[in-house]
Amino acid sequence: MKKILLTGGCGFIGSNFIRYQLSEYPEVSITNLDKLTYAGNLENLKEFESHSGYTFVKGDITDQDLVNSLLKSNRFDAVINFAAESHVDRSILDSGPFIQTNIVGTQVLLDAARNHKIERFLQVSTDEVYGSLGAEGLFTEQTPLAPNSPYSASKAAADLLVRSYVKTFDLPAIITRCSNNYGPYQFPEKLIPLFISNALEDQPVPIYGEGKNVRDWIHVLDHCRGIDAALRKGEAGQVYNFGGNAEMQNIEITRLLLKLLGKPETLIQYVTDRPGHDLRYAIDCRKAEAELGWKPEMEFHAGLENTIKWYQENRDWVNRIRSGKYLQYYDQQYGNRLNN
Ligand code: NAD
Ligand code: TYD
């Protein structure tokens, strides 16, 4: 797996994965195809701009001609699809872009991978496709898909498409499904980076409903290690779950964050619940442990402390996102070159 086409690499997990791959495997080269939506931040990978194993292509995964020409002019060993609209709340406001990118985009990539006989297609998916758990039980790879938000429905649709390409066309594809990630470079719209960024500015932290919903938190580097293991050791046609074995109610994690930040609990503000809000996610990742030799390594408190430290030290990164300045970086970096 030396030459990889990776999509969505300017987002949170994709940029962490690229950093991990290029530092772990000197022989690997990565082409990063990213549309640079609001969630794509080219600055996340600034340090690789002149790296010989890294190429950035601005473009949309739904653009069939572009995807096909990339696969035609490069002999990629693998395609890894991170690109997605990824925020549940946005999918409730407008599901359109979720259908386009998450479903149509995946179909375009699958067809191109099939036509160009790509040896490995890895679809980065989510535990949210399984729906919601009650107080007991864990999601296994056999749990039926029962998505409850437009986001998770679009990811489940993409997973089913991947499955169908395995069954119908023998496409050597793998699906990974991971629980909630946290860590550096996460866009400050998701719970952990939003609450850290707000609390650092003494702004309220908005908890949906009663804050009793449970998520299983995994450090992004553990997820990246899992995707890497699935890419190199996984079996075509299989699904692998990854989780952090760190279940927490939203109110618990919020109190912990405020404590670690030295901020008062008076910042907590209860707001109207998210419609269709899944109660609990929890992952059984014994298959990945047994078959890929993977397990989550980052202890949750240590991971959270590291993450807080990163946001404290990178307040400028958050400020540039909140002010919209990060969007200008592409023009600064590439505008003149494109005009030449
Ligand atoms: P993100 O929102 O931070 O980044 C998404 C990236 O995809 C951005 O760089 C964006 O510009 C790019 N993109 C969006 N539409 C595109 C298009 N049409 N063409 C090309 N690029 C496009 O997302 P993330 O949190 O890094 O998630 C990455 C993947 O992991 C997603 O598929 C998501 O469903 C999955 N996932 C995320 C989590 C999590 O906790 N964040 C957990 C499990 C699985
Ligand atoms: P989020 O980070 O959006 O991830 P997901 O919905 O994909 O699990 O939300 C994590 C949990 O935090 C979820 O139960 C919704 C809740 N939440 C809040 O209570 N307030 C917020 O402002 C946000 C963004 C999320």
UniProtKB/TrEMBL annotation:
Its EC number is 4.2.1.46. NCBIfam families: dTDP_gluc_dehyt. Pfam families: GDP_Man_Dehyd (PF16363). The keyword Iron does not apply. Its cofactor is NAD(+). GO terms for molecular function: dTDP-glucose 4,6-dehydratase activity. Belongs to the NAD(P)-dependent epimerase/dehydratase family. dTDP-glucose dehydratase subfamily. Keywords: Lyase, NAD. The keyword Lyase applies. GO terms for biological process: nucleotide-sugar metabolic process. It comes from the Bacteria. It is an enzyme of class 4 (lyase). InterPro entries: dTDP_Gluc_deHydtase, NAD(P)-bd_dom, NAD(P)-bd_dom_sf. Gene3D superfamilies: NAD(P)-binding Rossmann-like Domain (3.40.50.720), UDP-galactose 4-epimerase, domain 1 (3.90.25.10). It comes from Gimesia alba. Residues 5-306 form the NAD(P)-binding domain. It catalyses: dTDP-alpha-D-glucose = dTDP-4-dehydro-6-deoxy-alpha-D-glucose + H2O. This is dTDP-glucose 4,6-dehydratase.
